[in-house]
Structure formats: structure tokens, C-alpha cells
Design a protein that fits this description.
This protein has about 180 residues and is mainly beta. Helix content is about 5%, strand content about 35%. The chain contains 2 helices and 8 strands; from the N terminus they run ββαββββββα. The strands form 2 sheets. The chain has a 4-stranded antiparallel beta sheet with strand order 2-1-8-3, with helices on one face. A 4-stranded antiparallel beta sheet has the order 4-7-6-5, with no helix packed on it. It is elongated, with a radius of gyration of 19 Å. The two termini are about 25 Å apart. The N terminus and C terminus are likely disordered.
Length: about 180
């Protein structure tokens, strides 16, 4: 991983599909509330699974030192909120130490069998007999403002391209999200 102060031979390289970029960012909602801040440069594979398509597209032809301001509508980010992805499940299917915000990969046995198994489910409410789970991304339905800074650009290795990710995908949740 690239660290501040390290030199890269390709610092003047422009961003192209299937290269690696080291980014920092500030993510805000439309009211200006900071939702996430990445202070240390982190590497992402452009053209892979690490970044949203709009971000990949916007990064093209930029280089180290560039700062970008992006506006992402829900359909360009995490989609619209879908109330069909809310599930009311029996409280007995969950551990005793359950708290709002906890996440489950797939639903436990005894829950809605038709619910997609490849999603993350977030506990949104807990009642004595039931638990409300939400399979929407936590930022679904929200328009976002993203300030990105490109710290470095390098060619991706064949192994990185083959994996399709560097594993640092903030913009993805779940195994197939």
C-alpha cells in the first residue's frame, strides 16, 4: 500500500481503466453533514469492483494532485431506498445480545426463506417478539457530495486486475453488492 512520503515512478501517470489510485475523500449529504472521511490515502482498483461506476468514470484522465467534487444522485450511488428490502423476523432467531446497527450476512435459519442470501442485513429496530432488518445499503436513497483527492496513480498488476478488487471497497457492501 502507498503511504504519504513514498515516491511512485508513475506519479505523473493519468488514470485509465484498470489502474490503481490512492485516494482520500470527504463524503457529505446534501445538507453538508460529513458521513465519512478518509484521511489516509487508500488504494482502489479503477475499473474493478472497488468504486462506484460514476466515480470510476469521473477519475478517468486525472492524475496525482487532482481534487474533484462529485454530486451523486441515489441511482449513481447506493440506489433508491426499497421498502421491499425490510424484513420483520422472529426475535428468537437472533442472539440475545442484539443491538440496532448490527449486520448479518444473510438471514439466520428460521427467517424469511425467500430473502436474498447474498446481502447484508442491518438491524434497524428490536421489539420483544420481532426484529426489523433492512437489506438496503445504509446510504440508499441519499444524494451525496464527494470530494476526492488523488494522491498517486500506478499500473495495476495482472493479479489485481484478475481479482477485480484491492479489497478496500468502501463503496461496496456484502459479498455480491
Amino acid at each position: 500500500m502507498w503511504r504519504a512520503g513514498e515516491s511512485w515512478d508513475n506519479c505523473a501517470m493519468k488514470i485509465t481503466p484498470q489502474c490503481v489510485v490512492a485516494l482520500t475523500w470527504t463524503l457529505k449529504d446534501t445538507l453538508g453533514e460529513v458521513l465519512d472521511e478518509l484521511d489516509e490515502p487508500t488504494e482502489f482498483l479503477v475499473g474493478g469492483q472497488d468504486l462506484l461506476a460514476k466515480i470510476d468514470e469521473s477519475l478517468q484522465d486525472h492524475q496525482a494532485g487532482d481534487v474533484m467534487e462529485l454530486h451523486l444522485e441515489p441511482e449513481q450511488a447506493f440506489g433508491d431506498f426499497d421498502d421491499q428490502l425490510l424484513y420483520l423476523e422472529p426475535r428468537t432467531c437472533f442472539p440475545a445480545e442484539l443491538e440496532p446497527g448490527m449486520a448479518f450476512e444473510g438471514l439466520p435459519p428460521g427467517c424469511t426463506p425467500s430473502a436474498p442470501a447474498d446481502r447484508l442485513y442491518f438491524v434497524s429496530e428490536i421489539y420483544p417478539e420481532h426484529v426489523v432488518l433492512d437489506a438496503n445499503h445504509p446510504l440508499a436513497g441519499i444524494a451525496l457530495r464527494l470530494t476526492l483527492k488523488v494522491h498517486a496513480v500506478r499500473e495495476a498488476t495482472l493479479e489485481e486486475v484478475g481479482r477485480g478488487t484491492l479489497g478496500a471497497g468502501f463503496f461496496r457492501l456484502g459479498p455480491n453488492a
